[in-house]
Write a structure and sequence with these properties.
By secondary structure, the chain is of the alpha+beta class. It is 46% helix and 15% strand.
């Protein structure tokens, strides 16, 4: 029975394993801030924690975060149901993998929010978080922060003065700090958008019987 779901199951568990191994290592070994530079100034590992939505946005304080977490859980449940549907309907394997990547990425960030606040002390610029301390974690269930670490500021400079709106202002590309789960989501969405004509070929219509 589970054999036909083998591809999405392997995809989801592989993404979750890699994502959580990276996050647990970063969280338990480094204070927040820059960890190392991979290639020059434009490729860095910078440990930060995202308390809210993507790109560090927040809304509604603790209640807003709880609502967001509940919505994410609901979205993941719907995602599992959708994967079951497209597998049973025989959709393209690449499309199934892409949906599994998106689902795994969302689930990976939910795990941070749900459990990291319970099992770790708070991270800051001076101290490394401690695991399972007697005093308890830094936040309750679904109130934890998402661990981000990949930072690729490929361009850091000043915009030309002749630009009418942002001329002369500081500009950085790419300024977002993200994690492996975010990469899985972006990759899944990107492949679907770029190859949608290939993935969603019209299915042949059944011929009506000749009377």
């Amino acid at each position: 029975m589970l054999k036909k779901y083998k591809l999405p199951i392997i995809t989801i568990f592989t993404v979750l394993f890699i994502d959580q191994c990276i996050k647990l290592y970063i969280k338990s070994h480094f204070p927040t801030g820059e960890v190392c530079r991979i290639i020059g100034d434009w490729s860095r590992i910078t440990f930060t924690e995202n308390p809210g939505m993507a790109f560090g946005l927040e809304f509604g304080g603790n209640y807003g975060k709880l609502a967001l977490s509940v919505f994410r859980i609901f979205a993941v449940i719907v995602g599992f149901m959708y994967i079951k549907k497209i597998v049973n309907e025989g959709e393209h394997k690449v499309f199934i993998v892409c949906v599994a990547l998106i689902l795994a990425g969302a689930l990976g960030n939910i795990l941070d929010s749900a459990f990291y606040g319970l099992i770790f002390s708070a991270s800051n610029d001076y101290e490394v978080a401690q695991f399972l301390i007697p005093q308890g974690g830094y936040a309750g269930f679904l109130q934890g922060h998402v661990v981000d670490m990949f930072y690729f500021p490929m361009f850091d400079g000043q915009l030309p003065n002749w630009l009418p709106i942002w001329g002369g202002e500081h500009f950085e590309f790419f300024s977002a700090i993200f994690n492996f789960a975010d990469m899985a989501i972006s990759f899944g969405v990107g492949i679907i958008l770029v190859f949608q004509k290939f993935l969603f070929k019209p299915k042949p219509k059944a011929e009506l019987p000749i009377s």
